[in-house]
Amino acid sequence: MAPFLPISPGRWPPRGWAMAIGLALLAILPAYVSLTGEAFYMDLASRLMILGMAAVSLNLILGHGGMISFGHAAYLGIGAYCVGIPAYYGIYDGFIQIPLAVACSALFALVTGAICLRTKGVYFIMITMAFTQMVFFAFVSLEEYGGDDGLVIDLRSQFAGPVDIEGATGLYYFIFAALLATLYLVHRITRSRFGMVIEGARGNERRMHAIGYDTYRYRLTCYVIAGAICGFAGALLGNFTNFISPEMMDWSASGELIFMVVLGGTGTLFGPVLGAAAFVLLEEWLSAITIYWRFIFGAMLILVVLFWRGGLNGLVDWIGRAAWRKRS
Amino acid sequence: MDWTLFVTQLLNGVQLGVLLFLLASGLTLIFGIMDFVNLAHGSLYMVGAYLCASLTQWTGSFLLAVALALPLTALVGLVVEFVVIRRLYARNHLDHVLATFGLILCFDAAVQFLWGPAGMAIPLPAFLNGRVELLPGIVFPTFRLLIIAVGLLVALGLYLVVMRTRAGMLVRAGASNRTMVSALGVDIQTLFTLVFAAGAAMAGLAGMMIAPITEASIGMGNEIIIVAFVVIIIGGIGSIKGAFLAALLVGLIDTMGRSFLDTFLKLFFSDQNAETAAPALSAMLIYVLMATILAFRPQGLFPPKGR
Fold first, then answer.
1. How far apart are CA A80 and CA B9, in angstroms?
2. Residue B30: CA count within 13 A, CB half-sphere
3. Complex ipTM, two decimals?
């Protein structure tokens, strides 16, 4: 695990720089696109930020809490269906859809988490996956909402006032703001007393228990928060793709989310966003080269696990140290 | 309720159950002995099916193809164990899950490269392609009966090997305490390589048995592997007896749920509600079962003793 970074006044850690540069690039991307007209990059960045949010929320339980959930894609699906199903009935109000998505995801996380967190290790991995399969099959068999074929969302969520996400730029900045809010929230959570208990329970649950913390409740709360954030990301994903299908909750989608977290660096704030970015860009790049891109992707996944611990954030630290040595 | 339909579905449930057992027995041993989560077990099921399909085309005989494809699938398992999996035993479950997830992507792409994107059907010889009348009015496909017979035979053979031979004794000992076994001078690494190959062969056999019915297709293992995991979790990780009983239980509940849940629900709800709810509920049934069992017995129904 990464040791605490020495905080020296006047100097940002390299990770801080990576985050600042990354977010700044995302912030000015629409301006660049409006100059060059390559709308494709906007789509790519929107997807990247939504998956980044989902990965940040997964990292809260996986990286900080040590709870390896193999079913996090369920919340993406639930969030998206909470946009799609009201839209199917003609309810487009974002102030209904988004709170609904967050509430449903939180509720699902509460009920399933209460059962899952009674188990440990492999059992936890498998039971979280089983619950996601349950939701997957439930939506597959809901013929009313498209079943296997999915459902088209004809209009995006509507908000009162100046917020309008029907256009690509409006949606882009809405997602960007959501990502910033998520990062801030998770940053505050991990630095709080609550976050310390979660970290402590990952390190040694018995000891945390012995000094008087009901770790089960702390973990469950953390699990619910992560689910709610991911449900929000799911609502954005539904809005972004204008189409929802059970495919979003396929177990491989959950596996991909874990990959993003590990690729970026577990237990770090901005790592999962870097991981999601690398994932989306690689997927785009490799699938343009060959139809067998999944082979390269899979091989890379294995190599990352075998030889490259610490993820992209580790790389950022390394570059930062190298740059610092050169200057001093 | 229709009596003949009930018996036929019962047999279908048993057939699904033994198929699941072929997958789950290898999985539970790999899991039990080395504490290794192998998501890619379903890929070996797919590889077995494709190898058998190609060999059936070349040799013209399904049975010969199965006989040849079995050692080949075991060989694929050996190679995978040697190249990737061996390096992962000392790692945590997260690494296992990720690396074997990567293996699945590799296998799916490799199969697409070698055999093309379309599925492959396996033609059955005439004597297996018919139907037999088991009881007056109950007619069942011969091949599905063969699947049940093969599954039960493998289960019996596995039981004898595990309970009556020296290698089986080591496997059992490894499943209950692997540190102690290796401290006593047993080469647990070789033991595990062999178990992995045997598990691969059994998974491949399951693929060969189902492919004549559904045809071999890319990603065919990715659905059933989750159900196989449900089976070993319900049965208790590391227990072959648990895997067998849980496989039959899951096979029966899944098949019976799909055929009779709507009839059952109609006893309590209106016809329309029952018909809407039944498909969703029956697909979820085995997961509900698993969640219920884990909520009350987090170790599964038959955890191996000595843990």
1. 37
2. 29
3. 0.84
CB-CB: which of B95, B105, B287 is closest to A298? Answer: B105
Amino acid at B122: I
Quick check: B97 and A255 CB within 8 A? yes
Question: Sorting pLDDT into bands at 50, 70 and 90, what band is A327?
Answer: low
pLDDT tens readout for residues B253-303:
988 888 887 777 777 777 777 777 777 788 788 888 888 888 788 778 887
- Report CB contact under 8 Å: B280, A141: yes
Phi-psi region of B125 (alpha: psi -120 to 50; beta: other; left: phi over 0): beta
Residues 133-192 of A with CB under 8 A from B: 133-134, 137-138, 140-144
Task: Sort out which chain A residues have CB atoms less than 8 A from B295's CB and list them.
Answer: 115, 118
**Model-level pTM greater than 0.80?**
yes
How far apart are alpha carbons A105 and A183 in whole angstroms? Answer: 19
Helix axes B166-176, B142-164, angle to 10 degrees: 80
**Cβ of B295 and A299 within 8 Å?**
no
Do the beta carbons of residue B5 and residue B138 sit within 8 Å? no
How close, in Å, is residue B59 to chain A by CA atoms? 29
Tell me the C-alpha distance between A41 and A44, whole Å.
Answer: 5
Q: What is the pLDDT of residues B82-139, one digit of tens each?
A: 988 888 888 888 888 889 999 999 999 999 999 888 888 888 887 777 787 777 777 8
